[in-house]
Amino acid sequence: MSDTTTKVRASLKKRYAAEKRFRFYGITAIAASIGFLFILLFSIVSKGYPAFQSTFVKLDVQLDSATLGISETPTSAEMRAANFGGLIKQTMRERFPEVSSRGDKKALYQLISTGAEYQLYDEVAADPSLIDTTISLWLPTDDELSALIKSDADLSNPDSIVTRMSDKQIAWAKSLKDSGQLEVRFNRTFFTNGDSREPELAGIRAALMGSAFTLLITFALSFPIAVAAAIYLEEFAPQNRWTDVVEVNINNLAAVPSIVFGLLGLAVFINFFHLPRSAPVVGGIVLSLMTLPTIIISSRAALKAVPPSIREAARGLGASPLQVVTHHVLPLAMPGILTGTIIGLAQALGETAPLLMIGMVAFIVDIPASVTDAATVLPVQVFLWADSPERAFVEKTSAAIMVLLVFLVVMNALAVFLRKKFERRW
Amino acid sequence: MNTAIANDTIDTSLIQRDPVKDSAQEAFHKLTETVGTPTVENAKMRSRDVNVFYGEKQAIFDVNLDIGNNEVVAMIGPSGCGKSTFLRCLNRMNDTIPSCKVTGNLSLDGEDLYGADLDPVLLRARVGMVFQKPNPFAKSIYDNVAYGPRIHGLSSNRAELDDIVVDSLRKAGLYDEVKDRLDAPGTSLSGGQQQRLCIARSIAVNPEVILMDEPCSALDPIATARIEELIDELRQNYAIAIVTHSMQQAARVSQRTAYFHLGKLVEVNATNDVFTNPQHELTENYITGRFG
Question: Residue B148 and residue A318: Cβ atoms within 8 Å?
Fold first, then answer.
């Protein structure tokens, strides 16, 4: 046996052991990350899924025009002033005739959500002929009652239940439940309403629209600017001190804390240019400033990765420098550019700090209809709800996170789809 | 011709002492003027006293060389001798290298290549180029060939464009192999086919000169033979300059051969003469395989 053979043979075992160890580390790392991801998702989903359901109570409401304080053919002004709240209270009193003291009555009324009267108003406004008839309606309940019913607790044993409701209220709930007047249904309100102080009325719609508008502005601004900047720097700019300075500064910008961009937005766009406060347009501009460096850096990397032979081939045929870029380099770099854009936008979607500075932390009840309306965004909504004392907001918080994650997954899926579409071999 | 060639910029310390090389080195240092006949009557492209610098480093020294109509000029020489650099000056492909500087006079049909009248885009439409590695675009075979005519607006309708594409593919000897799959990606072809596709792409623009930078170095002998045949056919219509590492190839395809050595043009003569009766010691050393 030669010397080499002996030495190689002696070292083989060690080398393979090193490889085995390395594989073990890798698998452990992957298992750990999957584990953490699973724990995260599990805790969010298990906390959040009740928010997609809500308890409704079935009441036979006699639309008595006297109680409502309107005529039989009411004008819209009359309708708006009508006492629907009083009507619901009256209906509840009739359902529980034994309740007599003022305090008990108040406790009884608390079972019904304040949103019930708006629903009643909508029904009657849509069909005024219902006045002075009796209709059967499923109305939203208060968040405490809703949580109680959803938790499927044993209502006959009030002591075992952890709730802010009194024993009397629990007894009434039991009575309603036993007569089949309580039902857990899909919570449409969560997707159609804006924020509210009442958890059962609070919805994600305003934040969702705010996020969509903000991201739209961010994409519309940052994508073209970043791609143009990347193309210029990579394909046209002379290599000199100036471009070096620009490059270093772009890299630095990518590392600037996002709240600084928020301060900049506040000082420049709101104080100086007087753009509307709390509006997606300002949020979008601020987030594009933050996203630009990310997209520029990844776009440059993608452009650099296009083989120079393709550029030479096009140039050799007499393509002008711009034609070389638009016909050949850009299409080949597009998948990489899109990946960078998605990473940037995903980052922007989850950003809270800079938006706090420009007033997008507002309590938004109305669904924003344009980019200049006051709005908030999903992560800020999560932040606001996480801060609320009502127990029902805990599930809302998790549900909002779920919506945010779904938004993200949809965005990524779109990116993957676009990338596959643009991807070509060379 | 009073071309004083600067020797002091060449690093000769790497050349080892060996009797053959010593004499070659001496011959190189004595070299002040290209041996043979670098110029021709009615040249298509002319170069006079061309020097090329990459930053401080000079890559080409006072090259005078003509490329005549309907002839193939082969450029041979050891690696790093500047033959590719010189070739790339002929359609200003070196422009994109920021540190590259070209002095002297280069002309196409008497028009100064670096003059204000001749735009590099126009120049490259008239002087096509085929590269060492086949580099088809990430497009279909049809679109690869149609690209040049499209950007230059050479056809007014689809039928005309079809004609140009088919004609170019025929001239490049590729049509019969790909006529059923013009929509297939250019990159799906074999290496030799890809190179012929690149040649078809160049001639689709109907250039006057075709520059080839080691077009067969990535191909097998069969594909190489096919391309060499093609070069010989193309000579009927175009002026061709080809850089090659294969002396057999130079002997087979070219009418004149230029031998470059460390940035200087040593000898230019009819190909037959260069390979059978080299006039300069360096040329002889190279073609007999004593170095290079």
Answer: yes
Q: Please report, as a single letter, which amino acid is at residue A271.
A: N
Residues 190 through 219 of chain B touching chain A, CB cutoff 8 Å: 198, 201-202, 205
Q: How many domains does chain A have?
A: 3
* Nearest Cα residue in chain B from A239: B98
Is B271 in contact with B250 (CB distance < 8 Å)?
yes
Alpha-carbon gap: A239 to the closest alpha carbon of chain B (Å): 8
Are B201 and A239 within 8 A, CB to CB?
no
Residues A38 and A156 in one domain: no
Report d(CA B282, CA B24) in Å as an integer.
Answer: 6
Supply the CATH number for residue A369's domain: 1.10.3720.10
Which chain B residues have a beta carbon less than 8 Å from that of A426?
137-138, 187
The overall average pLDDT reported for chain A is 89
pLDDT at B291: 63
The answer to whether A316 contacts B205, with C-beta atoms less than 8 Å apart, is: no
Long-range contacts of B121-126 (CB under 8 A, 24+ apart): B121/A318, B121/A319, B121/A320, B122/A318, B123/A318, B123/B91, B123/B92, B124/A315, B124/A316, B124/A317, B124/A318, B124/B91, B124/B92, B124/B93, B125/A317, B125/A318, B125/B152, B125/B205, B125/B207, B126/B207, B126/B208, B126/B209
Question: Which residue did the predictor score with more confidence, B13 or B230?
Answer: B230
Interchain proximity A238–B128, CB inside 8 Å: no
Residue with tokens 């012929």: B196
Residue written as token pair 């078809």: B200
Do residues B260 and B266 touch, judged by C-beta distance below 8 A? Answer: yes
Q: Given CB atoms, is A319 within the 8 Å cutoff of chain B?
A: yes
Specify whether the CB–CB gap between A347 and A413 falls below 8 A: no
- Do A59 and A146 fall into the same domain? yes
CA distances from B29 to A215, B6, B7 (A): 68, 9, 7
Q: Strand B209-213 vs strand B239-243: parallel, antiparallel, or unpaired?
A: parallel
Structure tokens at A32: 């750990």
Asked if the model's pLDDT at residue A426 lies above 60, the reply is: no
pLDDT tens digit string along A81-140? 888 888 889 899 888 988 888 989 889 998 998 888 888 888 888 888 888 888 888 999
Check if A97 contacts B (Cβ < 8 Å). Answer: no
Burial category of B277 from C-beta neighbours within 10 Å (exposed 0-12, middle 13-18, buried 19 and up): exposed
Q: Measured between CB atoms, which of B93, B148, B202 is closest to A312?
A: B93
- The topology under which CATH files domain B18-128+252-292 is Rossmann fold (3.40.50)
How many angstroms separate the CA of residue B267 from the nearest CA in chain A?
28
pLDDT at B3: 42
In eight-state DSSP terms, residue B16 is P
pLDDT value of position A273: 93
A64 & A152 share domain: yes
- Residue B43's DSSP bridge partners are B68
Between residues 322 and 341 of chain A, which touch chain B (CB distance below 8 Å)? 323, 327-328, 331-332
User: Does A317 sit within 8 Å of B128, measured CB to CB?
Assistant: yes
- Residue A307 CB burial class (10 angstroms; 0-12, 13-18, ≥19): middle
Question: Which of A217, A206, A262 shows the shortest CA–CA distance to A376?
Answer: A206
